[in-house]
TrEMBL record:
PROSITE patterns: MFS. This is MFS transporter. Pfam families: Nuc_H_symport. The keyword Transport applies. Its main location: membrane. It comes from Sphingobium cyanobacteriorum.
Amino acid sequence: MSVRARLFVMMALQVAVWGAWAPKLFPYMTMLGFSASQQALVGSAWGVASIVGIFFANQFADRNFAAERFLGLSHFLGGLFLVGTAFSTAFWPFFVCYLAYSLLYVPTLSVSNSIAFANLKEPAKDFGTVRMGGTVGWVLASWPFIFLLSAHATADQVRWIFLIAALISFGMAGYSLSLPHTPPKPTQTVDRLAWRRALGLLRQPPVAVLFLVTFIDSVVHNGYFVMADAFLTNRVGVAGNLSMVILSLGQVTEVVTMAGLGIVLARLGWRTTMTIGILGHAARFLAFAFLADSLPAIIAVQLLHGICYAFFFATVYIFVDDVFPKDVRVSAQGLFNLLILGVGNVVASFLFPALINRLSHVVGGVAAVDYRSLFLVPSGLALFGALLLALLFRPASRGPAQAPRQESPHVGLDRGAASP
């Protein structure tokens, strides 16, 4: 295969590991009888690992190890802990195995992108296409569960989410050794003041508003993955073996939306594009709240995922790359990544399981969730974020100085970000 094809497969395997377990993590923990606080701890482990991983990958891993070997070892060990997670039904063994897996996996998000950038002859031209392999991997990871799960899957069946992820992780470990050799980056003088200067930019009103709105939207975005699968199976009535396929429809539309993002930004500018992205979240959760009895509507609204991600999060990465001073650009990307992958994930993991617990009641001896009231919370948060952005976000430029490169929405991934 060509280098681009090999890197495309790498991205597909890399993200498929994540996509195999992510949609059903919280429903599975409910099946195991974990309390809301226990579920919050498990969910926040991924966020903590994201925060640690961003610094570890950038400051240690890629300066001391050949990237493909680091990738192979991390995925092999991570696969072992995924197996441990699958067969742990008590909370503490489950939490320890999941935390260990998270700490091993998250740095590979950045390292895999580093391998791609280092081995593409024209990364500015080709990285976007290579990174789309991750979207393909996430979608394909959902298909085995049509056959592995029943319509009313039990915990013994759902544990396959971790076993399938482990198998993919082992496959990725072996495949990593066939990737082009990518030696450690030469030790360079680290600008220790860059983070301080990036934080100093928060004193500028447009940056401060965008930082706050990014935090709000990251909580809403991560909350979707906490609540969506259980909603589809318990309230809408989607078969347990089909819910992940329905959720993956959003990743399909992401490809189309990302392809047209440059045109949209040129015509609408920063503020309008980002506001539409946040309103996409509000529309999706309002549909969940008021159209739960219409399966076609619930399936169709999944297609908003591309707008939710590309029009806001990808545009944030482009904004930072286009507007921030070059010497603090990497650190600024890192700060926004901390919100999206780390802080927003932790807050969502505590907030939404607690709300689900509070809004649950027993009907006819069966526990039920007041999903309408539940989904009005993220809808309200998204509308509040959109209002802040529309009224207070006043950047110096209306839009990008020039049409953004197609890979630009993914550039932030090199610092640890990823689109689920």
